[in-house]
Design goal:
Blueprint: E1 6-9, E2 12-18, E3 24-28, E4 43-50, E5 58-63, E6 66-67, E7 71-74, E8 77-81, E9 89-92, E10 103-110, E11 137-138, E12 142-147, E13 151-160, E14 165-173, E15 182-188, E16 194-201, E17 205-212, E18 228-236, E19 239-248, E20 253-256, E21 259-262, E22 265-267, E23 269-274, H1 276-279, H2 285-288, H3 292-305, E24 310-313, H4 320-329, E25 332-340, H5 347-362, E26 367-374, H6 379-391, E27 399-400, E28 406-409, E29 433-437, H7 455-463, H8 469-490, E30 494-495, E31 501-503, E32 506-509, E33 511-512, E34 519-520
Parallel strand pairs: 23-24, 23-30, 24-25, 25-26, 26-27, 28-29, 29-30
Antiparallel strand pairs: 1-12, 2-3, 2-4, 4-10, 5-9, 5-12, 6-11, 7-8, 7-10, 13-14, 14-17, 15-16, 15-18, 18-19, 20-21, 21-22, 31-32, 33-34
Helix pairs in contact: 3-4, 5-6
């Protein structure tokens, strides 16, 4: 980059409070209020930002996770507001004080959950209010992009496997009155070398750059997670106007018969689940949920050490740094939106926010399965399918949950059901099955049961009146391991017990003792 184009990370400590009264200092990303309580007033964040000198003329603030309905202020003046917040949002800082060398006061206002319209796709379903983080917060990174009078608003890479070509969809905006003439896309390896590139005439709106790879890039897989950086530059008369980068891996994931294929080879998804937004509700997770080192050591590395190759992020995208981890580690990802037991959002909101969500997913080679909703049915699902039909022409062929894959949730030997092994073959399903919820005998670090409504009755039914911690631990282990083995022998396309990290109300976690120590329960083995 040059001094015409700069990027500033704004993570760290911000002043914060309710009702624009700044009475505390909190980390960003992080929680501001109590994750178990809906905020009683608008949540405000504030910090001073020293803008660097340079030849840049405009600024765009990107909030990777700012729920709900973020409004952005410069020196007290509202400059941008948008619905949503469960996917990244972009905010053009159009203000007279935003120019090189100036110091500005930046504020971000977030609406309480109960003020978010039902039609907004980022509104947490009421079925989850009692077991998930319901507070407003900046739960992912904040970045400021300084650029010229035209900017890149969208960056979506994918692989044309058959033709050994990188496709990059780029959105271009000329709000600053400058018309760019050139768009350049480069593929950069881990050593910083440009291994492939292409240029094309720029146009305002959307265009797709095609980069012929000619064998220069190795495929991305769990065994060899060769990831590259895609760098896109917007120019006028050879001068840089804007530049954005993202991760990319050469891969092709799809369906063949009743199974999945990666890069032309069969692949079975051996997974565990993390319900990141629910996990934030655990008092032990207030800081741990944002500790990337802890997550890498105790989730990503432990899964790989046990032969797993997939991680299901259930009911909401986690902080992007966790997807970065999976990119580097070669851990495939099942990525989910937060809909659960219903989809109240309007089709317009679904299209807008899912587009940002799909764009984010394609910027991470680890993401294989795209899961727009969980355990929903009826007219609301028909509306959601209609939104997908509108969106899918913008993307390469993707594997979409419920459209292409059947997701089986059989809580045998646990919360709801006796052990019922009802299938002798996966053939009747007619398409791949991802068995991504079973196990379900939820225990905390001291082997205490969760407060899930059916938990007490389940333990009573299987273990009797005076069950001990050791008995509960054995049931927790066997209900996951034995049922997983059943689905494996049947040939399910993938399976994932529930869950490695969740809330005390639903899921708890797969660790013993203080969570910070990361001591695994036997279910890991």
């Amino acid at each position: 980059m040059s001094d015409r184009v700069q990027e500033i990370g704004l993570d760290g400590y911000w002043q914060a409070g309710w009702g624009r009264e700044y009475n505390q200092t909190v980390p960003v990303p992080g929680l501001m209020g109590d994750p178990q309580e809906i905020d009683s007033d608008v949540v405000w964040y504030r910090r001073e930002v020293k803008l660097p000198v340079g030849e840049w003329t405009m600024a765009t603030l990107v909030l990777n996770g700012a729920r709900f309905c973020p409004g952005v202020y410069v020196n007290g003046d509202l400059v941008s507001e948008t619905p949503g917040g469960m996917a990244p949002t972009q905010h053009l800082l159009w203000h007279s004080a935003v120019h090189p060398g100036e110091t500005i006061t930046l504020e971000i206002a977030l609406q309480p959950l109960d003020r978010v319209p039902e039609k907004d796709a980022s509104r947490i379903p009421e079925a989850d209010w009692w077991r998930s983080n319901v507070s407003a917060c900046l739960w992912d990174t904040v970045r400021l992009y300084l650029h010229g009078g035209a900017r890149i608003t969208r960056l979506v890479p994918w692989t044309d496997w058959k033709n050994d070509t990188l496709m990059v969809k780029v959105g271009v905006d000329d709000t600053g009155g400058i018309i760019p003439d050139t768009l350049r896309a480069e593929v950069v390896d881990e050593a910083g070398h440009i291994v492939a590139f292409a240029e094309m005439p720029a146009q305002v709106g959307e265009c797709t750059v095609k980069v012929s790879l000619q064998g220069a890039c190795e495929p991305w897989s769990p065994e060899a997670p060769d990831a590259y950086t895609v760098r896109v530059s917007l120019l006028q008369n050879g001068e840089l106007l804007d530049q954005r980068s993202c991760a990319w891996g050469k891969k092709e994931f799809g369906i063949e018969g009743l199974g999945f294929v990666l890069n032309g080879q069969p692949v079975h998804l051996r997974a565990d689940s993390v319900v990141w937004h629910r996990w934030c509700r655990d008092p032990e997770a207030r800081e741990l949920a944002f500790d990337i080192t802890w997550f890498e050591r105790n989730i990503v590395q432990r899964l790989e050490d046990h032969g797993a190759n997939t991680l299901r992020f259930h009911l909401g995208t986690p902080p992007e740094a966790l997807l970065d981890l999976c990119d580097r580690a070669g851990l495939m990802v099942q990525l989910e939106w937060s809909f659960f037991h219903g989809i109240k959002a309007s089709k317009e909101s679904l299209v807008t926010q899912w587009r940002d969500w799909f764009d984010l997913a394609l910027r991470h080679p680890c993401v294989m399965l795209h899961h727009p909703w969980n355990e929903s049915a009826g007219d609301e699902v028909r509306k959601a399918f209609s939104a997908l039909e509108e969106l899918m022409p913008e993307y390469p062929p993707l594997v979409i949950a419920h459209r292409d894959v059947t997701h089986v949730h059989k809580y045998w030997w646990s919360l709801f059901e006796n052990l019922g092994l009802y299938y002798e073959s996966i053939e009747p399903f007619g398409r791949p099955i991802m068995v991504d919820e079973f196990g379900g005998n939820y225990l905390g670090g001291e082997l205490q049961p969760s407060t899930y409504p059916t938990e007490a009755g389940s333990l009573l039914r299987f273990l009797g009146h005076k069950h001990t911690p050791s008995q509960r631990l054995q049931l927790n282990t066997e209900s996951s391991s034995q049922v997983a083995e059943y689905w494996r022998r049947l040939g399910a396309a993938g399976f994932s017990p529930f869950c490695a990290l969740g809330s005390p109300e639903d899921g708890y976690h797969h660790f013993m003792g203080p969570l910070v120590e990361g001591n695994p329960k036997p279910v890991w083995d």
